[in-house]
User: Which sequence fits this backbone?
């Protein structure tokens, strides 16, 4: 049986991996949740939408004779990552996660570490400020608990429904973002505080460096914890793992 990879994507890392895998000549499919209107084009065939939980993913792995599962989802896509661990075990398919190291605060940073998005909301208790909320759109509603602030949101797609915050504006823009642009954005919008997930990687880091340059506080949401799994931090490592696993298993 030839190797047949399933890559769980939705990140720039997954896009890069899809390119490397296609160049290496592997048979592979890229899976996307379907959250953005216009996903970046991939040289691999794509499937879009959920599998129906861990059980659904395990059934997909068996039905499509997937030989290797690669979780290249965002570090905050914890449900998908947990499902991948359970499904890979159930289906007897080797799993590797392509992850990015978390960002670490530098001496000049003013980070307020919080364990999750609800704690980020609680950390904004206090007088009205201008907040840059670069967290995607899924958890915006939580911030309605702190309605005193003016929120500047950055979204990949134009909003299709009214935004859930009483005083906010949306900037529609897709990363990677550059330091100069994010510096200008924070200045133009007279931002007092940035809220960010600790996504790691370079594409979303500009706002963190910009906040540092302007001595602004960052409410930094820690990553969700996941069960132990095999993790690699570069596309090359994952590609080599597939080569090696293919040889060892005789796939
Ligand atoms: N969370 C973030 O901050 C963030 C940022 C940038 C990009 N993304 C990307 O956006 C997607 C959704 O993120 P999320 O935080 O909503 O994930 P999540 O909460 O972990 O996933 C919720 C459900 O969405 C489906 N799903 C998620 N990723 C999928 C994939 N790659 N292929 C097929 N189904 C998928 C699964 O549905 P079923 O249970 O039905 O299988 C999963 O249980 C992920 O692919 C992620 O890489 C997320």
Assistant:
């Amino acid at each position: 049986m030839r190797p047949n990879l399933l890559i769980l994507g939705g990140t720039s890392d997954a896009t890069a991996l899809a390119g490397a895998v296609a160049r290496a000549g592997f048979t592979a499919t890229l899976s996307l949740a379907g959250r953005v209107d216009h996903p970046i084009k991939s040289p691999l065939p794509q499937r879009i939408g959920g599998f129906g939980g861990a059980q659904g993913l395990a059934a997909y792995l068996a039905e499509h004779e997937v030989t290797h599962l690669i979780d290249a989802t965002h570090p905050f896509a914890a449900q998908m990552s947990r499902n991948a661990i359970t499904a890979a075990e159930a289906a007897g398919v080797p799993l590797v996660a392509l992850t990015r190291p978390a960002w670490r605060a530098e001496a000049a940073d003013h980070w307020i570490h919080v364990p999750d998005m609800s704690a980020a909301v609680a950390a904004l208790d206090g007088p009205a400020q201008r907040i840059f909320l670069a967290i995607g759109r899924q958890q915006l509603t939580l911030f309605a608990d702190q309605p005193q602030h003016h929120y500047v949101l950055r979204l990949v797609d134009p909003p299709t429904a009214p935004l859930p915050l009483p005083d906010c504006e949306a900037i529609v823009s897709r990363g990677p973002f550059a330091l100069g642009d994010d510096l200008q954005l924070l200045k133009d919008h007279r931002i007092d505080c940035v809220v960010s997930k600790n996504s790691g990687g370079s594409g979303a880091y500009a706002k963190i460096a910009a906040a540092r340059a302007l001595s602004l506080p960052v409410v930094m949401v820690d990553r969700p914890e996941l069960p132990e799994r095999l993790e690699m931090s570069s596309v090359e490592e994952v590609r080599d793992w597939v080569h090696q696993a293919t040889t060892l298993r005789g796939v």
Notes: The CA atoms of residues 32 and 48 lie 5 Å apart. Residues 8-11, 31-33, 35, 50-53, 56-57, 73-74, 76-80, 83, 136, 138, 197 surround NAP (CB under 6 Å).
